[in-house]
Design the sequence.
């Protein structure tokens, strides 16, 4: 019983309730079903990206290329639509999403090769890749997003609704289920956790560690790309700074969910709650009409206090 | 190792080779020297005071921040708030460092004290709060950025011009004062410290924390010291940036955080801790800035510059990879 009370998942659940109470007292519309559904819809973009980042963090690595993986796949997808519209070609609009996802997977592949084969620390390699992708996009586009818009599929996934619930939420839940299954029930999941605990031991136990690391980075690239495509569908355009506000909240959501940044353990459920918490925190601060500097301070303080609580009161996941 | 034993591997070593660790220091210095030569060759003014002072000045801020980052990295940590501390001290400097000489002196001391305090808070979160350095400093970084924005919502402010001129021009009419300042501060802080047990324990706990602890060193105190040093050097960077731009800007932080990590790695330190030198890290910072300057003078299209900067960063950090690929024993490269 105490183990359940002391798990990060419980603590973050309590904090979500607390933040809903604060929001409700500040604005009567806060607990409105449509407002909350909209928050979940926005959470989905962050949540999809965080799923990929979770795998990388369980490996004991980190992916700092999230911002420009998101942005470059969104730019690629919207310009495919733009080109198709110019040529009055219906097929190219259908190609937008696969091409955007392929861009993300390719960036993930390069990340994985650098980390697994060249053995450059992920912190610095993915940072360099982020800079190169940024440079490539600026070089190719000349500093402006090329003309284009989101494809109908992207728009429908990002803003459409089915049975009253946002489609983005289905996407998020679907990928979360797949990720949770992979991480906890399959060989590859156990291999990821094993590598996070000690790559040497995992290698000696017969795990093809380099292949697994590359695979996880490709999955992270795909997730970041999907997040970028959903965001582009939501805004109906791609823009240069769209990925920047996602890097730190992704890491915050994962560690608030109880996953150790050192790797070797991870909780998908905790992370889902962490994503909801981070989104609600941002939303409450804007409902309270807090000026931006104060928002940053509260945001940082809340993360710090949460982690202090974890350090004192919880046992690690697994 | 028995000193008298001469192994075949040792005998067959070519005469010019250095001990393994020395390459970590020699490589950034050699590359920097080559890049410096290239810069002089293509610079319209060549080797002149008018070209050397800007070259020296432009990397001082990054060098300060990178040295601060290095002390945390060497203990196997990472400070993601270091750019935010730089921004906060830069913003504070634009408020405090002007007026009478006494006011200026108090202002400089206050800025440095705030930097140390930020570092101490980071250290306390890591040591006593038992939070991983990466996430602890991620959170405190948001707080410091917020504070910097409160102090200076829009770029501007006022910094003493006489002191600024003194620090950003030349000594004896030809030697950049900023370089003297950089080396004097680093030397005065690190040299005495590196001769104490506490200073050496920075390397020791980064190399092997349990061994260091069992040898009687105090990992908590060392880690706290590392973060305070990071805060102090970030504040030095913030002050110098204020002297350079004569104003404060709360939004300069994040790129300095990322570039400081890059400079530390390029300068021969290992993110796994325990390895690296201050001189190498300063060379790493100058290396990064020299590359940017060279790109401006080679007439590379401005749109291609970010791409080349990224490629150079990747190439620089991949140098160590050759050993990894050619290594026959896979276990050596896995951790």
Sequence:
């Amino acid at each position: 019983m105490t183990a359940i009370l002391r798990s990060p998942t419980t603590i973050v659940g309590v904090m979500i309730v607390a933040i809903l109470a604060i929001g409700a007292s500040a604005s009567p519309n806060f607990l409105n079903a449509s407002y909350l559904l909209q928050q979940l819809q926005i959470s989905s973009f962050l949540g999809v990206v965080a799923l990929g980042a979770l795998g990388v963090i369980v490996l004991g690595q980190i992916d700092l290329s999230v911002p420009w993986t998101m942005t470059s796949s969104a730019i690629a997808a919207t310009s495919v639509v733009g080109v198709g519209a110019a040529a009055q070609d219906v097929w190219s609009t259908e190609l937008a999403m696969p091409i955007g996802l392929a861009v993300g997977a390719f960036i993930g592949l390069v990340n994985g090769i650098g980390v697994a084969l060249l053995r450059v620390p992920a912190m610095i390699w993915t940072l360099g890749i982020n800079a190169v992708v940024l440079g490539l996009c600026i070089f190719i586009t000349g500093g402006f997003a090329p003309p284009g818009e989101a494809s109908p599929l992207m728009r429908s996934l990002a803003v459409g609704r089915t049975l009253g619930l946002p489609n983005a939420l289905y996407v998020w839940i679907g990928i979360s289920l797949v990720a949770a299954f992979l991480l906890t029930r399959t060989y590859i999941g156990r291999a990821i956790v094993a590598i996070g605990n000690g790559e040497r031991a995992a290698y000696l136990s017969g795990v093809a560690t380099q292949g697994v690391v590359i695979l996880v980075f490709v999955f992270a690239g795909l997730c970041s790309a999907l997040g970028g495509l959903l965001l582009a569908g939501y805004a109906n355009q791609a823009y240069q700074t769209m990925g920047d506000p996602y890097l730190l909240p992704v890491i915050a959501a994962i560690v608030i969910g109880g996953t150790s940044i050192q790797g070797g353990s991870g909780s998908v459920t905790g992370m889902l709650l962490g994503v909801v918490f981070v989104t609600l925190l941002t939303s409450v601060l804007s409902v309270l009409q807090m000026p931006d500097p104060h928002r940053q301070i509260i945001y940082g303080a809340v993360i710090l206090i949460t982690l202090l609580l974890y350090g004192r009161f919880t046992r690690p996941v697994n | 190792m028995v000193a008298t034993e001469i192994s075949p591997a040792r005998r067959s070593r070519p005469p010019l080779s250095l001990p393994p660790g020395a390459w970590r220091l020699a490589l950034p210095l050699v590359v920097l020297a080559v890049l410096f030569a290239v810069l002089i060759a293509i610079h319209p003014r060549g080797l002149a005071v008018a070209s050397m002072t800007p070259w020296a000045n432009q990397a001082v801020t990054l060098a300060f921040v990178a040295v601060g980052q290095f002390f945390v990295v060497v203990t196997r940590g990472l400070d993601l708030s270091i750019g935010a501390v730089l921004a906060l001290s830069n913003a504070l400097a634009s408020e405090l460092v002007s007026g009478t000489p006494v006011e200026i002196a108090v202002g400089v001391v206050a800025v440095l004290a705030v930097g140390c305090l930020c570092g101490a808070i980071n250290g306390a979160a890591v040591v006593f709060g038992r939070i991983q350095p990466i996430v602890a400093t991620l959170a405190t970084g948001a707080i410091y950025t917020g504070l910097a924005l409160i102090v200076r919502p829009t770029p501007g402010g006022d910094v003493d011009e006489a002191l600024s001129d003194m620090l950003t021009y030349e000594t004896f009419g030809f030697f950049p004062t900023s370089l003297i300042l950089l080396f004097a501060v680093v030397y005065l802080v690190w040299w005495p410290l590196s001769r104490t047990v506490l200073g050496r324990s920075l390397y020791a706990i980064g190399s092997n924390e349990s061994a260091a602890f069992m040898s009687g060193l105090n990992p908590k105190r060392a880690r706290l010291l590392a973060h305070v040093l990071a805060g102090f050097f970030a504040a030095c960077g913030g002050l110098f940036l204020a002297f350079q731009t004569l104003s404060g800007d709360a939004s300069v932080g994040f790129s300095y955080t990322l570039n400081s990590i890059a400079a530390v790695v390029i300068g021969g330190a290992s993110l796994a801790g325990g390895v690296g030198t201050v001189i190498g890290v300063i060379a790493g910072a100058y290396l990064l800035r020299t590359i940017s300057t060279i790109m401006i003078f080679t007439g590379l299209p401005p749109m291609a510059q970010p791409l080349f900067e990224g490629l150079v960063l990747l190439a620089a950090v991949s140098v160590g990879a050759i050993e990894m690929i050619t290594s026959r024993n896979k276990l050596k490269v896995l951790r």
About this structure: Chain A has one domain: 8-21+32-313. The CA atoms of residues 5 and 269 of chain A lie 15 Å apart. Chain A touches chain B through 53 residues (CB under 8 Å).
